[in-house]
């Protein structure tokens, strides 16, 4: 065979092998290779949904979305440039009046070699345009688009960020909450619904209704070349915007409630009192709707817009500054003091006291070897329960509670003994969370026999140690207090589990270990006003889509207090006289139009060991057809009648002025 024949045979053989290989690739391995090619050559980019707004009852935004101007550049332009895009980024920085290093850092993906630490790097997808700068001057940014030959691949977009319009001056940060980047745990738990670039609610309504506000992210599938540069869009699934949360809040009343609380704190401090914390709330007694609520100390929620600095966050959580981030509406408990007496009257009647009887309001009474004095009032001699509430006489309640304690068996009573005062407190919702639609709610404390025993078991070792060592760290500054604490430790080391007469009488006036939230006390006074219904306090009223479709949130009835109608009417009559001349809040409500809008309520001045008294006023109005319960508390604020009652009066002034 000649050379030509050999070459021909080789060509035919090679051609046959090629055809066989092509057939194998197409017929046998084709589907597998096609899937692999798709996997290798496409990437999915998340299109983040626009977060819903938080609105007041009339639709005014309390939290909205502002759009910041961002300048971007296509990654392919940087990759194709001989200098890696440094020249282009230099020109962009000069045009925007920004440092080159700030923009250049954003061209590196966080975590890659040579990338600067976050947030200087770009913590996003490598398949989207790189955001070189955000929050830039829109006019400067647009000049870049007018010179495409000088700024190739450069684009201008708008990026959403949380905005706080403060309608009528209302801040409401402890209600609204704030957002922050999703954590690794949240991304994992989200199962694809949340990615590392998402923001999620961290507190308040933002956290409570995060799934509603966040919406559903979309996705864009892009094809990429071997360099990782996007060449085309394969498919797109649009994002679904989050729904708005419409609240019961009235921005006008919210602003005035915040101002009234701030004035109450200022009034207490003018009296040389610490007034280190406080809260105020307005609740609809017919539904539990929260129209306004404020916590002190407060802060500007715009600090969280676009991400809060570490120094600002440290200031908001600093104990020396009063931890402004902590909500005194939900997370803080206070001794209710004399505001609790509206619970004690029906409890005493259930224990056998005569609703229309006469009782001794002496300046003091000795029980169990201890002298218990009136705190808010002087001795009035024989008085009825109506006047007992009006003048806030403690010694009447001491005697009533002591009689009930003896009837239960005194010190010998079992832990399971039925206590009418404890039972009534629990019926009014104390000692358990209200269920308000805000995270981080405290349950408070109803210190019954079971609690006393459990607390003693949990603290016995430390108590017995202190019975021996005393409190030298306290003695260096206050010898009398240290001696008192040591005597208490000696007594409690062996018998701290006992529910003593002193525990019972202190509980009857909302003192001792009793602890409540302001929302719980608002629920108590709402139930007194409406005849015994406990409503779940609710801030959100409805969810609304961008198209206007609204889903209302119905009110939730939690319980009905076993309150005799005649007892409820008796208590309401007494509370109405508290705000009139001669009542403990008469001065605060002097000049208020009681004929047109009668208001009832109760003062409270809670003693706290080692601290100044807690100031309370809880009330409702109008008494003719109750609509709103209003409560104010100021920690270490002193007298309830001098500090808290005037603030409640100011809030009722606002309710009248606004025609609510």
Automatic annotation (TrEMBL):
Residues 278-652 form the Penicillin-binding protein transpeptidase domain. It comes from the Bacteria. This is Penicillin-binding protein 2. Keywords: Cell inner membrane, Cell membrane, Cell shape, Cell wall biogenesis/degradation, Hydrolase, Membrane, Peptidoglycan synthesis, Protease, Transmembrane, Transmembrane helix. Pfam families: PBP_dimer, Transpeptidase. It is found in: Cell membrane; Membrane. Belongs to the transpeptidase family. It is a single-pass membrane protein. Its main location: membrane. Residues 48-233 form the Penicillin-binding protein dimerisation domain. Gene3D superfamilies: DD-peptidase/beta-lactamase superfamily (3.40.710.10), Penicillin-binding protein 2a (Domain 2) (3.90.1310.10). The gene is mrdA. PANTHER family: PEPTIDOGLYCAN D,D-TRANSPEPTIDASE, PEPTIDOGLYCAN D,D-TRANSPEPTIDASE MRDA.
